């Protein structure tokens, strides 16, 4: 691809919108995960007794919350993959088709 064509694609509104959407989604999910993880660390640092609360005979709240964080990270990864496969990839194909 020539430099002028590359520059044209990079300056196109469709490409600019694609980049903006990708950054928006990526940063949103990053901040969500950071909020959940740092929130957990803050609870560990300042409310240890809360996490010691027993649930059943051999479980406590900390284990449940830890598993919840892992499941949450899988879910937001799945949502991102769904978005990328259904929207991002389609937009990339449209931009390539215009070339």
UniProtKB/TrEMBL annotation:
The keyword Membrane applies. GO terms for cellular component: plasma membrane. It comes from the Bacteria. Keywords: Membrane, Transmembrane, Transmembrane helix. The chain crosses the membrane at residues 23-46, 58-83. This is Uncharacterized membrane protein, DUF485 family. It comes from Daejeonella lutea. The lineage of its organism: Bacteria, Pseudomonadati, Bacteroidota, Sphingobacteriia, Sphingobacteriales.
């Amino acid at each position: 691809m020539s430099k002028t064509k590359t520059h044209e694609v990079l300056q196109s509104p469709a490409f600019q919108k694609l980049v903006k959407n990708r950054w928006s989604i990526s940063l949103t999910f990053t901040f969500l995960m950071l909020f959940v993880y740092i929130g957990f660390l803050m609870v560990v640092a300042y409310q240890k007794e809360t996490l010691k609360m027993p649930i059943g005979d051999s479980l406590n709240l900390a284990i449940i919350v830890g598993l919840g964080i892992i499941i949450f990270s899988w879910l937001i990864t799945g949502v991102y993959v769904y978005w990328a496969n259904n929207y991002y990839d389609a937009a990339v194909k449209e931009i390539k088709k215009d070339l």
